[in-house]
Amino acid sequence: MSHVSIRQLLKNFDGKPPTVAVDHLDLEIEDGEFLVLLGPSGCGKTTTLRCLAGLEQPASGSITLGDQLVFDGDRGVNLTPDKRFIGMVFQSYALWPHMTVRKNIAYPLKSRKLTDALNSGRVEETAALVDCERLLDRLPAELSGGQQQRVALARGLVSHPDLVLFDEPLSNLDARLRDQVRAELHDLHQRKPFTAVFVTHDQSEALALGTRMAIMRAGQIVQIGPPREVFEEPVDEYVAGFTGMSNRLPCEYVDGRWYALGAEIFGMQPPAGASVGSFVIRLRPEKVRLVADAADLRHGEAGIAVHVDDVEYGGLHLDVMCSVAVEDSARRQLHARIPTHDSSRAPRTVSRGAAMILAFDPIDGRTFDTDGRALALPQRALTGALAG
Ligand SMILES: Nc1ncnc2c1ncn2[C@@H]1O[C@H](COP(=O)(O)OP(=O)(O)OP(=O)(O)O)[C@@H](O)[C@H]1O
Ligand SMILES: [Mg+2]
């Protein structure tokens, strides 16, 4: 395993229109760290991995892997993929169809002439790690999708490379298998740490696996930190939206009352200073309640009148889609996720078409200025709960 250092990496594509896929990206990855890259489609995740692997040539910047400079635009250094000791597990598993599982897994050892590892049972040992030891003599066509995915994992890990790159390696698996392979991967990394960059679209995967998590936008990293920090303290609205704070209330203090989306918010205290007369609050669907009446608001809670547009049963929870009950509003939807058996979070029955109050404690939300940057706002002050 190795420390990885990416400095001012730039990769553009000429196409129509030209694209800056990786935009002067800086990234340091510690030895043994499992770094998760999260970001919307097209933000440059795959291109970053391909530059690390040597499959794309960046325009400028540098990449160091351990003590080896593998790319440097200024010095004209660009090592070919086979000269970089990197394992890759990509979304399309690309197993060799004519080779058995054993030969597929052994391939990186053979091509790097790691004969000691080959002869000491490394292939069998790695296959066992991903629960594939009974499949060694089969061809890829004789495997299920999930089994192929696990073989691809074993192939990426077998040579104990300096760095392992994963590009959405679990996205082709069904939910149960995805959880299983994710747990195996986490356990494996805990037992035998290796340096990894793992791209995913799946937030729960990112939270579960990452030593650190990086959120990308348009070829750059917007926020990087331990998953808990990124999840709980997003630096801006983009990250907040990306990590599940989907309810957005732009609050405005006008003539002594708070409004959001054209409707009044009950229960919020007047702003402490002029600077907080307008801000945006973001709330997770799990952090709001639905009550029948404004009189049902708890001490410290604020509320806004909503119309229930739809209710979906989700087993352990109900997903209630609401919109602000003002006729001329743009019907911005709000989402409440209510535990099915918790009557304190919503009345026993919530039905489509009902008029209700969406209740929230501002301390459970995160606030942002009108440019979308996180505010260090004493949220408690808004509710007056401390004063009360
Ligand atoms: N070979 C190419 N030629 C031209 N443009 C490309 C090429 N490869 C990628 N791009 C562009 O570069 C940008 C980044 O692409 P990339 O594949 O890195 O995105 P991504 O974050 O992996 O997205 P996804 O989540 O959809 O896989 C996109 O705008 C894409 O259209
Ligand atoms: Mg991609």
From TrEMBL:
Record domain ABC transporter: where: 4-243
Pfam family, any one: ABC_tran
Coiled-coil blocks: none
Gene3D superfamilies: P-loop containing nucleotide triphosphate hydrolases
Keyword ATP-binding: yes
A GO term, aspect molecular function: ATP binding
Keyword annotations: ATP-binding, Cell membrane, Membrane, Nucleotide-binding, Translocase, Transport
InterPro entries on file: AAA+_ATPase, ABC_transporter-like_ATP-bd, ABC_transporter-like_CS, ABC_transpr_MalK/UgpC-like, Mo/tungstate-bd_C_term_dom, P-loop_NTPase, Transp-assoc_OB_typ2
Tagged with keyword Translocase: yes
Protein name as catalogued: ABC transporter ATP-binding protein
